[in-house]
């Protein structure tokens, strides 16, 4: 039996990654796409061989669909997800789930009450590199984890700039775009939760309207581990990476903070260096496969709604820290608090 999807948002990410990820599933089918612009929606449907294009959410939810993928601008996620949940549709939503962790908790509670599967599309959890790092940490191959560093400063291509650098009300800025991913990836790889963050943000020439296009964060985790992350929209040549340093060894990963299944992971210990092998499956294909399995009662999405609350509460705390000049405690149950 096929599992029929509706796309909420005629987005670049859906075209580049999700359309294929859904269609390569044995039971995956895209039934309809919604765009607030009828012209864009029609053109998108033709370009991507989607039978139905609609311009309102009500029309999309009236279609014969089982699940929705939400990739609209951030301020629209909550209302769209709640409407889909009310209509009995499973929801895979791009990060951040909403503009505030309080709204994200509302979304998660609604899905739980309705028996709906809700996933956060944190694609990096699905990277073979990060799963190999998580397994190495859990197996004790670096001893007790002490510190971590994430390098995730990139150059935001012109076709993706738009609202991300100009519209605070839409949830623009690098923290809600990239820091949420880094917080989630740190949680996933370390098997540990952040409890406090100190952050500096900058506007280095790309973002306007008071938005930040660079951030550096220092995180403290429950275990006592400390981590550093650098996010940016304005660095063309930085390269990305992820390091975890423990009492008995270090994991050094290069070119892994990306949407593509690439990069390398090196384990360095007293016995020398070992390059870890990992699968190179498409991150989005794996995300959708896990989501389909969850709908069929087998496990959970790769990143749950609760994971989405954690990453958003972490990003929220980073923004509070940058504006207040103080370290901010992170509590996903209450939203970030001073």
TrEMBL record:
Residues 130-251 form the GFO/IDH/MocA-like oxidoreductase domain. The keyword S-adenosyl-L-methionine does not apply. Keywords: Oxidoreductase. InterPro entries: Gfo/Idh/MocA-like_OxRdtase_N, Gfo/Idh/MocA_oxidoreduct, GFO_IDH_MocA-like_dom, NAD(P)-bd_dom_sf. Residues 4-122 form the Gfo/Idh/MocA-like oxidoreductase N-terminal domain. It comes from the Bacteria. Belongs to the Gfo/Idh/MocA family. PANTHER family: CONSERVED EXPRESSED OXIDOREDUCTASE (EUROFUNG), CONSERVED EXPRESSED OXIDOREDUCTASE (EUROFUNG)-RELATED. This is Gfo/Idh/MocA family oxidoreductase.
């Amino acid at each position: 039996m096929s599992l029929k999807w509706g796309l909420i948002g005629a987005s670049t990410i859906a075209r580049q990654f999700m359309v294929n990820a859904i269609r390569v599933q044995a039971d995956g089918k895209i039934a309809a796409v919604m765009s607030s612009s009828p012209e864009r929606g029609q053109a998108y449907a033709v370009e991507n061989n989607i039978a139905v294009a609609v311009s309102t959410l009500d029309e999309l939810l009236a279609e014969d669909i089982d699940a929705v993928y939400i990739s609209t601008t951030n301020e629209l996620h909550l209302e769209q997800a709640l409407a889909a949940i009310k209509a009995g549709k499973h929801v895979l939503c791009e990060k951040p789930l909403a503009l505030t962790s309080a709204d994200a908790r509302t979304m998660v509670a609604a899905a739980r009450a309705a028996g709906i599967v809700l996933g956060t599309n944190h694609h990096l959890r699905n990277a073979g590199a990060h799963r190999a790092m998580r397994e190495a940490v859990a197996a004790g191959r670096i001893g007790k984890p002490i510190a971590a560093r994430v390098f995730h400063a990139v150059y935001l291509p012109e076709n993706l700039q738009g609202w991300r650098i100009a519209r605070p009300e839409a949830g623009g800025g690098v923290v809600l775009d990239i820091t949420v991913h880094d917080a989630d990836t740190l949680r996933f790889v370390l098997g540990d939760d952040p409890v406090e963050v100190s952050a500096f943000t900058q506007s280095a020439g790309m973002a306007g309207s008071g938005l930040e296009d660079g951030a550096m964060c220092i995180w403290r985790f429950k275990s006592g581990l400390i981590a550093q992350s650098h996010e940016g929209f304005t660095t063309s040549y930085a390269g990305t990476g992820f390091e975890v340093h423990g009492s008995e060894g270090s994991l050094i990963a290069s070119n892994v903070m990306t949407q593509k299944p690439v990069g390398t992971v090196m384990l360095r210990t007293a016995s020398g260096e070992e390059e870890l092998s990992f699968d190179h499956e498409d991150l989005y294909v794996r995300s959708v496969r896990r989501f389909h399995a969850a709908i069929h009662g087998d496990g959970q999405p790769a990143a749950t709604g609760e994971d989405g609350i954690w990453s958003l509460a972490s990003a929220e705390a980073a923004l509070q820290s940058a504006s207040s000049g103080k370290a901010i405690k992170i509590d996903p149950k209450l939203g970030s608090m001073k």
